[in-house]
Amino acid sequence: MSAGGLDFFVLTGFLGSGKTSLLRDVLSADTASDTAVIVNEAGEVGLDGVLLRESGDDVPLAMLSNGCVCCQAGSDLAFTIDRLIMAPRPDGLPPLRRIILETSGLSMPGPVLRQLATLAEHHLRVAVIATYDLTRGLAVATFEEAVAQWAAAHRIVATKADLAPQALTEAPVAIAQLNPVAEGIVNADRAALASAAFAPLAASLPLRDVAPDLAAAHPRLALCLVRPPAEIAYADLASWLDNVAGALGERLLRIKGLVKVHEAPGPLLVESVGTMFSPPRQLSAANPPAPFIVVIARDIVRAELEQVPPSDLFAFSWRDPDSGAAQPRGIRAEWVT
Ligand SMILES: Nc1nc2c(ncn2[C@@H]2O[C@H](COP(=O)(O)OP(=O)(O)OP(=O)(O)O)[C@@H](O)[C@H]2O)c(=O)[nH]1
CobW/HypB/UreG nucleotide-binding domain: which residues (predicted)? Predict the structure, then answer.
């Protein structure tokens, strides 16, 4: 560990609000070589680590997939942090000064902060950074996860300024209303935004765990892992995605996946935030995971998704994000090389 201690940033924010993109921006800065990253995804298959590696960064990177860290009582997070701190630094990299944990978009910050409390011997200076998606603004405030993330934040970072320039002017006021004691970080320049979001911490900040523990951590949300066949026609994929958006409407929160189509040599990255799809693009990363699509939605009946045509192409496995003790499962920790 570096002599001056470590800054530990918990990067939180609702589904699809721009966490991974902000992290890519900070890792592409020249100053990022003192940083290590832990990525947590609610789904069984972790895509964010693959996307971060795709941008060519060689900082130590650990994935915690198969469940969001806030739902786990176990010590995988603490164990992973411990290992990152104790591991010898890769050749040519300066001492570790900063760790960034990207939580899943469903994570409540309180349980994560409580797990960090078990690491007192490392004298971490902890800060919570939450994203505020300018394209959606307060629309996600109907989710207690989003409200808890903003409430716990020390810094709230306005993302996607290029997509919603008109919302940029109002953002400082909107952010102050969400959490008057958080520092609002608003900048149309992405590099400057990322740099301010993860600027060094002078001291440990008071941690705010204001959200109550809920009986069910994510009461309205369902998560489905959809397995497409090894290869599929692009037209089938496109019409299925269209039909999912049509069937679920505003209850669709996030789609993220990798699909192999006949028409392209590499797997296609498909994703939506709500029903807004990004244009599919070929993934350039080596060793991508097997084809999969994660669908996260609220207030749905499983059959609604399973019957979306062409339904006979896909296999579905479901999980409530708050599976709790009835369906115990382990977060998988793995190092991304
Ligand atoms: N144009 C534009 N698109 C952005 C920006 N930030 C994020 N996006 C897009 O928004 C979508 C979601 O961004 P991510 O960075 O994956 O969001 P996330 O919060 O990490 O998503 P989850 O981990 O699934 O919760 C992707 O299609 C991004 O390319 C931005 O500043 N500008």
Answer: 9-180
Do 176 and 263 lie in one domain? The reply is no
**69 and 182 housed in the same domain:** yes
**Which atom of ligand 1 is least distant from the CA of 161?**
31
Q: Is the ipTM of this complex over 0.95?
A: yes
Domain region containing 145: 6-215+330-335
272-306: pLDDT as tens digits: 999 999 999 998 777 778 899 999 998 888 899 99
Q: Do 196 and 240 share a structural domain?
A: no
**Is the CB of 66 within 6 Å of ligand 1?**
no
Contacts 24+ apart (CB under 8 A), 71-77: 71/111, 71/217, 71/218, 71/321, 71/322, 71/323, 71/324, 72/111, 72/331, 74/330, 74/331, 75/115, 75/118, 76/330, 76/331, 76/333, 77/38, 77/40, 77/101, 77/112, 77/115, 77/116, 77/331
Cβ of 284 less than 6 Å from ligand 1? no
Report how many domains make up the chain: 2
